[in-house]
Amino acid sequence: MSAPCHCSKSEGTSQYVDEHISSDPHHPANLICELCRLFYDNNWVTGTGGGISIRDTKGPNPNLVYIAPSGIQKERLQPWEMFVAELPDEKLIRTPNSCPPELTKSYKYKPSACTPLFMSCYTLRDAGACIHTHSQAAVMCTLLWGDKVEFEISHIEQIKALPKLAVNESTGKIEKVGSMQFYDTLVIPIIENTPHEEDLTDSLQEAIKKYPGTTAVLVRRHGIYVWGEDVWKAKVYNEAIDYLLELAVKMKQSGIATVKEA
Amino acid sequence: MSAPCHCSKSEGTSQYVDEHISSDPHHPANLICELCRLFYDNNWVTGTGGGISIRDTKGPNPNLVYIAPSGIQKERLQPWEMFVAELPDEKLIRTPNSCPPELTKSYKYKPSACTPLFMSCYTLRDAGACIHTHSQAAVMCTLLWGDKVEFEISHIEQIKALPKLAVNESTGKIEKVGSMQFYDTLVIPIIENTPHEEDLTDSLQEAIKKYPGTTAVLVRRHGIYVWGEDVWKAKVYNEAIDYLLELAVKMKQSGIATVKEA
Amino acid sequence: MSAPCHCSKSEGTSQYVDEHISSDPHHPANLICELCRLFYDNNWVTGTGGGISIRDTKGPNPNLVYIAPSGIQKERLQPWEMFVAELPDEKLIRTPNSCPPELTKSYKYKPSACTPLFMSCYTLRDAGACIHTHSQAAVMCTLLWGDKVEFEISHIEQIKALPKLAVNESTGKIEKVGSMQFYDTLVIPIIENTPHEEDLTDSLQEAIKKYPGTTAVLVRRHGIYVWGEDVWKAKVYNEAIDYLLELAVKMKQSGIATVKEA
Amino acid sequence: MSAPCHCSKSEGTSQYVDEHISSDPHHPANLICELCRLFYDNNWVTGTGGGISIRDTKGPNPNLVYIAPSGIQKERLQPWEMFVAELPDEKLIRTPNSCPPELTKSYKYKPSACTPLFMSCYTLRDAGACIHTHSQAAVMCTLLWGDKVEFEISHIEQIKALPKLAVNESTGKIEKVGSMQFYDTLVIPIIENTPHEEDLTDSLQEAIKKYPGTTAVLVRRHGIYVWGEDVWKAKVYNEAIDYLLELAVKMKQSGIATVKEA
To answer: What is the ipTM metric for this complex?
Structure first.
């Protein structure tokens, strides 16, 4: 059975409300829908690929995490279709399968296959949101740097949009201590893809731990994961990194080194 | 005589109604218009090229097939301009030429030249919808693989959006039995173009029969046909394939093989 | 003095009406605005470049020609800003400089520098509309075919969107007698640019006469002129040609001949 | 603390008004928001990069300069978030930090790091607006012309959208005396980037003085600054220059010289 068709004029939300649906445009369920439409227009999440998860850091329960369902057209997502899990035990406390059948049309939703990867960003980095795209610039960089386990770029202004991260000695947590500088080298680890998305979890976690300075992980022949302190920071980091990946492809094709000699 | 101009604010539909026009945005006639605008923005159906046909699989008569007229600007299509044919004998049961002259402006509509090709997908594969685009990525792949009769790509995450198809032994029909895997090789047959679109029918049918695992056929120097179990599946398959074709052009131009060595 | 700023929410039109302004979205003055916004989004008329002129072929006086002013941001054009000339003597019968000063803000409008070129299409080819763009695909083709006076392409499906033109022996006029075929070679003459746009008139007219089969003329290092029997035909021809020029650049860069060996 | 989230449906403005906020769409604070959304869609100001400043040349006090805050998502900017400075002493006379906390959410705004650069254009050139983008075409040109301190292009029609500037002998000021010609060579100086944006001020001012004919300065590995007599002129110059930079990258990659031999 196929998913309910999510045309842009879908009327469902206005008729159905529960405690995880809100008319506030800043509510995580609404922001996921808004940002997925934006990402779709950027060719980052076409063909049901990619996704985004948001933690309700400013809501009454900041341990709630909103997650889009698996295999759904990202640009047609509706707020009522979200799964909600509660940290730290990641228990699902809402599923769209409980919504009235006139909404679900008896389709059985499953949480995004990215869920354990999103959770890794929440638990290992205290992220407020995590974005996953199939950006062609990201995939091309993993192919053009095909024998490398790191992507590197330096001396480009846009690098300054990315955070300088460091371990807080008193808490042991990785925190933003400022912004990267123009002359810094941005290093993003590249992990190998696996047949099943959830099997990426171990190597993603390993990369997150091995690279305390990174706010993103590239997945070879697949795409990228980017996270941030909140949804807007995650969005900005993802935009800045994608800009740099797109530029890096052009530089490589023109024979220009992406890391400038000192 | 030229076709009536279909400016985006055309007022016709609200004044004229018949049994094949509906205010439901999920109605095939409305979806054809909505998706053609989307495809136009993707540069897939400019210059009146390409098109889409939808079978009313969820309507009262699932044998009705909606088809856009020939030679019309796809992004300006109006729901009243559709032809409707009934399977299995493909008899036309509605023509826009029966609409009032204040709508047709005496223009004589003809069904899309793709009609026999769309019908082949309905009859040979039990498709719910069929999309035809002049995507430049598709045309470039048929040129870059100019001496090949198959396009192939493997080990790219987006391949997982495509269906794994197999013959159902009890019915003899080809059915979706799951999704392709990351390490699978996607094979899309390439047929040679013909001077008249309808003359493609034989070779398209031959390719459909010879490649039971495919949900698409490339046409050299022309474009691509993609079909699916319903309109949303067809849309998703088309998006995923176009993503892969676009990536394949970039890989080829960078000297990267699209099929990974084992 | 600078032109009045044409923000997208400009309120002028609703308050000022004359016989060459209409609430009908199909009126030439409105279509020029609508299509210029579309062309702007295609990067065809940014930086005040390019333009479009429409003959009111379905209006009470089919000799009236609507022309946008010179040096105005094309995407912010308002219907009241049009010049209107009457064929065959090309006399200006309306200028936006007659509009109330609260609209013109004392800016002195001049007709587009393309005016004599548009007029050449009307008088030599009985065109219903003429489009001029600074399309980068057009400019690149004139550079990649830098030592040629013709651009040629064959055996691409999109060629079929273009008209087959022939001289009507009884009237001596060039008329559309059908559509080009897949295997036909589209030939578009390339003329050299001149310092002043109006000085292109002679060579454009010469090319129009020398190439009775063409519906477009490329201008080296500048852009393209495309015309058609009415505004929608001109739009479709321009889209189809631009698609072919874009594809031709890609083919050339991949070492693929644009004219297929027989 | 992170900036307030600026979703596209933010309701703040309609509820809060002061003397530097207006319902007139032509007001500088509104135009900055409108144009930043446009620039975002062009990939010029993603990831909080770039910006625009407008001088209220037609307002009651033409010495007021509107400046967007630092580190904010450009496409989500709201009119109440602007800083206002008064020329010639550049004193800040408005800060968004004075807005009610339900708007600012206690976020501490800082003026754009580009402020001293924008001010240089106002004071040295009497500009009416100044645009700064991270355009990839601009960055690529500074890399492809990596050993040059000037970017040059000639004999492209779009050059005619740019101003011919000359010193007015009686006032000593640089003024527009006409438009560049097709055969003119557009020369844009390239300055080296610095770790801190404000440290660019000296070299930007030096370039502005050394190149009296330029209306733009490229910054290596960073982007471009473009100014004009008013906001619309600055917008048009920026569009025309970006078109030329984009074309120049394509020409360079095809081995075509950007300056034509005489």
So the answer is: 0.94
